[in-house]
Write a structure and sequence with these properties.
By secondary structure, this protein is mainly alpha-helical. It contains five helices and no strands. It is globular, with a radius of gyration of 18 Å.
């Protein structure tokens, strides 16, 4: 799950750097050259989260994985809430459709976090077995 998230996030970062107007224009936001810095900062954040996701693949520490999953859920939930706030301030009719899209996205992420929880439980069981054998 972390690998898929990392790949998608990395792809988003690359698109934002190479084509800074592509993603904003897809949602009706016009970005001009003086506004590219903001897009590049978002790309840097995307890149950092991709690195975090790829790094999480190799982590076996239960507490560290739980923190990573929580961080990713908070990121996506907060961005969803802020999207809804933005839409409410700019286009009142679009708020309900954006809210339902973001709610589905957060549910998928939480479902993934559930998968990660099962992985964490397996890791914890393995650690307990190793400790009991020692």
């Amino acid at each position: 799950m972390f690998g898929v998230h990392g790949a998608i996030t990395l792809a988003g970062a690359v698109v934002l750097v190479v084509f800074p107007t592509a993603i904003p224009s897809a949602v009706g936001i016009t970005i001009t050259r003086p506004d590219y810095l903001l897009v590049y900062l978002v790309a840097a954040a995307e890149l950092a989260f991709a690195v975090l996701s790829f790094g999480a693949i190799r982590i076996t520490d239960w507490a560290a994985l739980r923190l990573i999953v929580t961080t990713l859920v908070v990121l996506h939930a907060a961005s969803g809430i802020l999207d809804i706030v933005y839409m409410a301030l700019t286009e009142a009719n679009a708020t309900s459709s954006t809210a339902s899209v973001r709610a589905r996205r957060v549910q998928r992420i939480e479902a993934g976090a559930g998968d990660s929880g099962r992985v964490l439980n397996r890791i914890s069981s393995r650690e307990n077995r190793i400790n009991s054998e020692a």
